Amino acid sequence: MKFAITLSAIAALIFCVLAGNPEDYTKAQSVYDFSAIDIHGKEVPLEKYKGNVLLIVNQEPGTDKEIEEFTQKHGVKFDVFSKVDVNGDNAIPLYKFLKLKQPGTNATDSSIEWNFTKFIVDKDGQVVERDVPKKDPLELIPSIEKYI
């Protein structure tokens, strides 16, 4: 029951790939300064989620169509976004911002090491935690609850 309450209280987002702005991500004040392209190609300002705790997760495999089919098959109820680059020169500004605010434990850089790297964003749009891909999402419940 506690898990159901937690999930209903957060806006969970899976970003397969994001389109975001501002281009100079270092000047952004929060994730609300960015937008993302959803799985249907529509631009969504992230300020839509203002006041909610967000879980931003990257997932790489598949095309947008395959990702959409997968999420429908599994009854996904949260917003899913179009595929984007999260590392390298072509990484979108939002992911550069996420990695700037929570660089992770990689000793050489802040790269996303693998699919399902998770970022927790508080109600004010601040990136407050970064978790490793292998961490079970259910283990995030206490972290998410402390920001609700």
UniProtKB/TrEMBL annotation:
<comment type="similarity">
    <text>Belongs to the glutathione peroxidase family.</text>
</comment>
<dbReference type="InterPro" id="IPR036249">
    <property type="entry name" value="Thioredoxin-like_sf"/>
</dbReference>
<keyword id="KW-0560">Oxidoreductase</keyword>
<protein>
    <submittedName>
        <fullName>Uncharacterized protein</fullName>
    </submittedName>
</protein>
<dbReference type="GO" id="GO:0006979">
    <property type="term" value="P:response to oxidative stress"/>
</dbReference>
<dbReference type="GO" id="GO:0004601">
    <property type="term" value="F:peroxidase activity"/>
</dbReference>
<dbReference type="InterPro" id="IPR000889">
    <property type="entry name" value="Glutathione_peroxidase"/>
</dbReference>
<keyword id="KW-0575">Peroxidase</keyword>
<dbReference type="Pfam" id="PF00255">
    <property type="entry name" value="GSHPx"/>
</dbReference>
